[in-house]
Amino acid sequence: MNFRKFITPVRIVAVTVIIVPALIRNPYWLNLIALLEIYILVSLGLSLILGYAGQALLGLGAVYGIGAYTSAILMVDYSWPFYLALLAAMGLAGVVGLLLSLISARLQGFYLAMVTIAFAIIFERALVNFESVSHGAEGLVNIPAASLGSWTFSPTDYYYLIAAALILGTWMTRNLIESDFGRSCLAMHSNQSTAAILGINTSKLKHQVFLMGCIFAGLGGSLYAHLTRYVSPDSFSLEISFFFSLVVIVGGMGSFWGPFLGALVMLLLPETLHVFQEFKLLVYGFILLICIVMLPKGLVRLPDRFRKKRVAGSSRGSVSMQQPIVAAPQNPVKQDKVILRVLGISKSFGKLTALNDVSLSVKEGSVHGLIGPNGSGKTTLVNTISSTYKPDGGQIFFNDRDITSFKPHKIARLGIGRTFQNISVYPELTVLDNILVGLHNFQPTDTLSKAFDLPRARRHEEKIRESAKKLAALVGLEAHLSTPAEALGHNHKRFLEIARALGLRPSLILLDEPGAGLSGEELIYLHKLISHIRRKGISILLIEHHVEFVIDVSDFITVLNYGVKIAEGSPAEITNNQDVIEAYLGIREGTDV
Amino acid sequence: MTLSGLAIGAIYAFIALGYHIIFTTIRILNFAQGEIVMLGALLGYTFHVLLRFPLVLTFFCVGIVCSILGILFEKVAVQPVLKSEGTLAWIISTVAVGIVIRNMANSIWGSTPLPFPSFFSQDPFSFMGIGITPQAIFTFILAMAIIIFLAWFQARTILGKSIRAVAFDKISAELVGINTRLIITLSFIISFCLSGTAGILISPMTFAYAQLGLPLGIKGFAAVALGGMGSGLGALIGGLVLGVAETLASGLLWSGFHDTIALMLLISVLLLKPSGLFGKASSARY
What we know:
Helices cover 55% and strands 11% of the residues of chain A. Chain A is α/β, with parallel strands linked by helices. In chain B, strands 1-2 form a two-stranded antiparallel ribbon.
């Protein structure tokens, strides 16, 4: 057990790259392995951007080239010392990374992909044409070797410098992806709007990811320039950008080992099979196509294809009811204090008016039911409160604070959690990680302390893991902590969403049809869970089609019909209200209860 | 000057329409579109110059090959990856096919630009004081004719209407009995034929070679992004605007940057107005 704990991925990488020179004496191969390590370093950066955060950056080769050229030009033309040139290369690459992330804030998906490709092409043209700076098509020759003071690095010394950079990069990447940083990236990759609703500041996260990834690329570029001692526009054409994307995708997006495996295969395969040197790019294209069609998760998942599909089907079935919800101590709440006030909200989609001047007030510590026939605007109202939609008119106050214009992640951080009518758990994350995404924003830590694995980041991680396990137990999922959410049954997913929303430590939770598709027994469990949440002092806005359920559990009910509030009052008043009976309750058989 | 810009612009509009037709039916952007243009140029060279086919037959043969490619492309690179969530999968699969086509063409035809004779005289004649070549006029008129035919096809024929129905709402199109699979395949065929034709039309000016595709593909995208992804008329106007802008600006910049004018225009327009100059406000639908 201790031994297994001792072998961490970072240590495996470190030991491997350190003993390589002892095993391989051939300078050609040592040089090739140094190049491989540079490629892995750059690919680790791209893996963060493309594989984890899902940002379609296809032109990273240009950033790599900026690193290489900055370092080369500063040393050749301006005689800067090596270490300063290296730092400048990383700095400039970081600045470019920030610019790219600003672009990605405005453009997504294929727009971003196309713009970054265009960026890479413009960069190459600029290298050829700005001869006074870049030395034109011939490039720079005789770039000085790395040196520090009077000590000039020998090839072996330089190999160790590259190895050290790779180890540092690997360690930081590993720390980040194992922390809530990595989980937030994957959540954003999976569904950006849900991520924001769970309190993730997606634009800040993108800035950090691009900054980090591009600094890696700049460092790699600079190391490359002093390894080959020669740079030219040909080395930084669009093909190198595609090469890095290929490494990440073929290796496996969103996996730690992906870039290692991908770089190993993509670089060493053509070296060993000299026959296809001429058709290298063609073969690369084919590999990429075959990989994305047959093995979209990359080579790291290849073993899974041969293994028996052991999807944790065991988790299908009813929610375990063994865990009785311990009655939480009644948290004191100020009765009659309004926690959420919706004032005259209107929202139209084209000519369809989804909400027309709707107002309601949710009292602190209460369960507020929201019912109405299909299409009456219930979910639109919830979407407006959580700021997925901007209302056309009206205001929303949370704890007497106007939150109408707030961004979704800010609303989440203020303490409004929600679940979704169309379940949107993160399918590839485990149950525990899903809940941790919610918890992440409860006392978030800074990214640097995560990257360097500082004690405060570790303590934070331990603390939220404990809370996540408690939340999983609360909704009866403690046996499935490491099951991927996609393998859960529908009923489990509903409860997982509630646990995830509770991770935000909300003071108000919006439940959008939590009972849809649940069995009678599970509805009883849900009832208990809602009562439990309420006793904790958390207010609930509940949308539900099971009218009897809502009447049973709610303190107060608002009824919508065609986007207009037609009634509100205590459950007893609602059941006797003539308008409601006509619009909704009256049609006993026709409703989808 | 402006008119030769319009002729180039009409060809960009072709490529832009190719993107647009696939995008409306299936909501993906084909990153290999430029390579089909390049193939059109090289196939045109093969049929017309090497095999001495007459021009009309050349267009026809290129159309057939492109149709087959369109069907294959949809089956191999698009359909299998659409099931996986997110946009990355199809971006990568179409980029991959682009790399394959580009390098295959490079191995078959080599990398030297192959000359394609003009359909008409390249000698400019003076028209109201401006020099115009008959070739430019022919290109512009042919491009306009095909674009108008396409507009008529979409507005008036049942197949064209089906395409619009699928573009509007795939599920309800299916519910009224439209074979959406067929329509999607058809949209790939039309799109690839347009791109192949664009390749033949442009090759007298640029010559035909394997590296031609990528810059043209990006310029076509710039045109369609200028006009707004979802708008056919926008694609047309975007192409014309781009062609004229490029011709006018080329005198102002170094010749080495000629190709990057479109790219810079693309980046700035997308950053200022992601939905395109004529697109609706619904930004970044992807």
